[in-house]
Structure formats: C-alpha cells, structure tokens
C-alpha cells in the first residue's frame, strides 16, 4: 500500500486543501498520514478537525511514497522549520512526489526545491518563491517532474488528482 504524509499546521490550515486531496487518494487505497508540530487534534480555518499521528521531526522519509504540504495561513509555521525544509529536500532529491498548495510552496522554495522549477502558489506569496528561484506561472496547478504546486483552495481537487496520478 502506498503512503503519503500530509504536513499540516496545528491550526488555521485550509480545510478543503486537506480533505479534498485526502479523499481522492483514499479512493484508490493510498494511505494518508497526517503530521504536524503536535500529536492530536488539528483545527482548520473553517472548523474542520483532523488528527496528527506523528510529529514532523519523527518522519522517516523511506516510510512514505510522497509528501504534501497543506496550505492556509497556519502553514507559515513551517516556512523556516528545520524538519519541514529537510523533508522537502529529501523527498524531492529522491524523486518522490513533493507538493505544496496555497502559501505552502514557500516551504518548498525555502528548501531550495523550487529553484528553476515551474511552480505556482497563492498570489500573496509569489514574490517570495520568485526570489528563491522559482519560475512562477500563476496557474492553478504546476507539475515540474516530481514537484507539484497549486495556488489555493479552488485547486484542491486537481492537487489531489495530480498526486494520485504520480503514485499510480
């Protein structure tokens, strides 16, 4: 069984950016594990609740086939997080699907993963990822080899489908 790790903020993650891709992956028996800075309940911007079962610092990349950074304003807690950046580098270097949606592409940019890669993000953070070498397109979704980026909540489903296609 394939496994994907979702890196999710303890609070203020974007609800649909979490549950839409998760639902899509689970329809094809892909296991989604949720990780955060704490174990236990995580709260989305609009009240959606999920549970983190592993601390980000305890993730072993070889146990997973892909990684996704979930957006929403809460994702900013990972912009300079040592473990979030390290994991992005490892997954990308290993050629595993490595993705981020909304403002979370800043994490990939700060990890150096978006350098010279076609990518997108929520418009408010486009200058940040451009400064880190990303080739910003402003499209709803960008796939550059194993790197998947999406620009926000309206792209949640295509973000999920893109991971599914990479994993199947």
Structural account:
There is one protein chain. The chain has 168 residues and is α/β, with parallel strands linked by helices. The chain has a single domain (3-167), classed as Class I glutamine amidotransferase (GATase) domain (Rossmann fold, 3-Layer(aba) Sandwich), CATH 3.40.50. Helices cover 29% and strands 27% of the residues. It has five helices and twelve strands. It has helices at 15-26, 82-93, 105-110, 126-131, 156-167, and strands at residues 3-7, 11-13, 31-36, 40-44, 49-52, 54-55, 66-69, 98-101, 118-119, 135-136, 141-144, 147-150. Helix 2 (82-93) links the parallel strand 7 (66-69) and strand 8 (98-101). Helix 1 packs parallel to helix 5 (156-167). It starts with a strand and ends with a helix.
The CATH superfamily appears as Class I glutamine amidotransferase (GATase) domain
Strand order, sheet with most strands: 6-3-1-7-8-12-11
Helix proportion: 25-40%
User: Largest beta sheet, briefly?
Assistant: 7 strands, mixed
Q: Average pLDDT, to the nearest integer? A: 98
Briefly note the structural class of the backbone: alpha/beta
Termini, distance in Å?
A: 11 Å
Low-pLDDT stretches are none
Return the string of H and E elements.
Answer: EEHEEEEEHEHEHEEEH
**Large-scale geometry:** globular
According to CATH, what is the topology? Rossmann fold
User: What is the number of beta strands?
Assistant: 12
Count structural domains. 1
Into which percentage range does the β-strand content fall? 25-35%
CATH secondary-structure class: Alpha Beta
């Amino acid at each position: 069984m394939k496994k994907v790790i979702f890196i999710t903020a303890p609070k203020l993650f974007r609800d649909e950016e979490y549950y839409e891709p998760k639902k899509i992956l689970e329809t094809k028996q892909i296991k989604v594990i949720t990780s955060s800075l704490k174990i236990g309940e995580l709260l989305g911007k609009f009240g959606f609740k999920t549970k983190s079962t592993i601390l980000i610092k305890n993730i072993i990349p070889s146990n997973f086939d892909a990684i996704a950074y979930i957006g929403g304003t809460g994702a900013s807690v990972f912009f300079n997080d040592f473990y979030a950046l390290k994991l992005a580098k490892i997954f990308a270097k290993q050629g595993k699907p490595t993705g981020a949606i909304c403002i979370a592409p800043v994490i990939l940019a700060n990890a150096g993963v978006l350098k010279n890669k076609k990518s997108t993000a929520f418009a408010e953070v486009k200058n940040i990822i451009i400064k880190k070498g990303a080739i910003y397109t402003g499209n709803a979704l960008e796939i550059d080899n194993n790197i998947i980026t999406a620009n926000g909540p309206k792209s949640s489903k295509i973000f999920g489908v893109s991971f599914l296609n990479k994993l199947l």
